[in-house]
Specification:
232 residues; alpha/beta; 7 helices; binds iron/sulfur cluster
Length: 232
């Protein structure tokens, strides 16, 4: 498999936000969202075996110092991300190996690739691309049937038009009753000015005005570190 980076950081999104997490970023994506903040993962990367990746994750999971009395110290959460991780079929045995090693595994995917081949226990964070992502209508509707009670659906919202799309999609497909959480996240402005952001306060006010059963998500790592920092 081809890997862009493996690193330890704080989970910035989803209901797991704030937890220490090891990220495995797989190389390559078949979409080109206008506000993509990981375009560096489209090309290049390093070839690694599933075993190499699991070993590197194990190394990163170990604490820097032994904590007295801790039965199972270290990081237990791993996220498989990209790019689009589901473009590489080895992601399935990788998720299985990581779970067999005792990790809780999340996968973040665009929603365009089928998720049904993944083990049920893998927590799927599935995007539905909104119109102003430039990748509207890429969501694979049959993925809705493969979602479970631990999974989450995420909309990244750039404009009022995106918000209305997300609101209607959530209602039409009864998402709040299908998954653990529906997430609405404002686009974070590009620090180099390549795309504008959506004010978090604006999105909060729209959600509150409609009383939607969704969780607003901010990309925590962009507040802890510089928004353009890589490997965090
Ligand atoms: S699907 Fe994700 S990695 Fe691919 S272009 Fe969109 S935001 Fe970037």
């Amino acid at each position: 498999m081809v890997i862009t980076e493996i690193f330890r950081s704080i989970q910035g999104e989803s209901t797991h936000a704030g937890l220490p997490c090891i990220f495995v970023r797989l190389t390559g994506c078949n979409l080109r969202c206008t506000w993509c903040d990981t375009a560096y993962a489209f090309y290049g990367g390093t070839k690694m075996t599933v075993e190499d990746v699991v070993e590197r994750v194990r190394e990163l999971a170990r604490p820097a110092e032994r904590v007295a009395g801790a039965a199972a110290p270290g990081v237990s959460l791993v996220e498989l991300t990209g790019g689009e991780p589901l473009l590489q079929p080895e992601v399935v045995p990788l998720a299985e190996e990581l779970m067999a090693s005792g990790f809780n595994v999340l996968i973040e995917t665009s929603g365009e690739r089928p998720i049904a081949a993944l083990p049920h226990e893998v927590i799927k964070i599935v995007d539905v691309k909104c119109p102003d992502s430039g990748e509207a209508n890429t969501f694979r509707l049959e993925n809705l049937d493969a979602l479970g009670e631990n999974d989450e659906v995420k909309f990244v919202i750039a404009t009022r038009r995106d918000y209305e799309f997300a609101r209607e999609f959530t209602a039409r497909h009864g998402l709040a009753g299908r998954v653990r959480q529906v997430l609405f996240s404002p686009v974070h402005a590009d620090p180099e000015g390549s795309w504008p952001g959506l004010e978090a306060r604006q999105l909060a006010e729209w959600i509150l005005a409609d009383g939607l059963p969704v969780r607003m998500g901010l990309q925590l790592h962009k507040f802890i570190w510089h928004p353009s920092a890589r490997g965090v």
